[in-house]
User: Fold this.
Amino acid sequence: MTKEKKKNSDIPIGARAVEAMKRAVAEALADHKRAGDPIFVWRNGKVIEIPPEQIEIREEQAAYEISPKTAK
Assistant:
């Protein structure tokens, strides 16, 4: 089974925005890791420092599907 690439105009704007945000976060994390800079996150009511060697970069591929309700 082959996957067809959908045109950007066929993908809902909200889904495109979420995908763009995921890519931007992955790029920012990769930049910190490359530069040797830690990141800081909020966990359990506290700010936690994550050293660059512990930064995990997950680049998930989003699958876009148009529901029958919104399909033309």
Notes: The two ends are 23 Å apart (CA to CA). Residues 13-35 form the longest helix (23 residues). The CA atoms of residues 30 and 70 lie 36 Å apart. Helices lie at 13-35.
